[in-house]
Specification:
The chain is α+β, with helices and mostly antiparallel strands. It has a domain at 8-139: Nucleoside Triphosphate Pyrophosphohydrolase (Alpha-Beta Complex), CATH 3.90.79. 18% of the residues lie in helices and 25% in strands. It contains 3 helices and 7 strands. A 4-stranded mixed beta sheet has the order 4-1-6-5, with helices on both faces. It has a 3-stranded antiparallel beta sheet with strand order 3-2-7. The longest helix is centred in the middle third of the chain and has 19 residues, at 121-139. The radius of gyration is 16 Å and the shape is globular. The chain starts with 7 loop residues before the first strand and ends in a 56-residue tail after the last helix.
Length: 195
């Protein structure tokens, strides 16, 4: 066992699909690389509530939160420990109202997003897993596995007890039934690119 234990800031990110699940949203940081929407979780905040709140603050979008698809731990360039949980999510629409945290946004097919300079290698892995998950569901003839709706209630289409099925390599879901996140003021208004 390692002596250097992680003492991390915890964040939650979203591989955020549009309503038709054809494109994902990337946000451009002022200092360069693209990233997934999301941010730090509050002390007493449920995971799904935290990611829903952070996405709303950064984009003005309400989202349905599905299951976690990737987790990662790392030390950033300033020597700070980080830990992230990335959820697969779906936006209620494509009308982004960007906060002051980012300078640009773009809806893009997830396969094309893999070619972008991303702020963290974990985001690439999360995108790859979201693509695989989406394709599995399409092949199986399902629209989605479910998740929590934009209001926070569980979708009726969520499968069984949420346990991992054979062949799944994503993290297991946690539930947040009935919990809602009130709208949060946004600094948005700056436009983006929908190409």
């Amino acid at each position: 066992m390692t002596e250097d234990m992680l003492r991390a800031t915890i964040s939650q990110k979203a591989v955020l699909f549009d309503p038709d699940e054809r494109e994902v949203l990337l946000l451009l940081q002022e200092d360069g690389p693209w990233e997934l929407p999301g941010g730090r979780i509050g002390t007493d905040e449920a995971p799904e509530t935290g990611v829903r709140r952070e996405v709303y603050e950064e984009t003005g979008l309400l989202v349905a939160v599905d299951r976690p698809i990737h987790t990662a731990a790392w030390r950033n360039e300033r020597g700070e420990d980080r830990y992230a949980v990335v959820f697969r999510c779906r936006a209620d629409d494509r009308e982004v109202r960007l906060s002051s945290e980012h300078v640009h946004w773009r809806w893009i097919p997830p396969e094309a997003a893999l070619e972008f300079e991303l702020a963290n290698p974990a985001y690439r892995t999360a995108l790859e897993r979201a693509i695989v998950s989406r394709e599995r569901e399409r092949l199986a003839g399902r629209s989605r596995r479910g998740g929590t709706s934009v209001s926070g209630a569980d979708d009726e289409s969520r499968s069984g007890d949420g346990a991992l099925r054979s062949g799944d390599d994503e993290a297991s879901p946690s539930r947040d039934a009935g919990e809602t996140t009130p709208p949060v003021e946004s600094d948005g208004g700056r436009g983006g690119d929908t190409e």
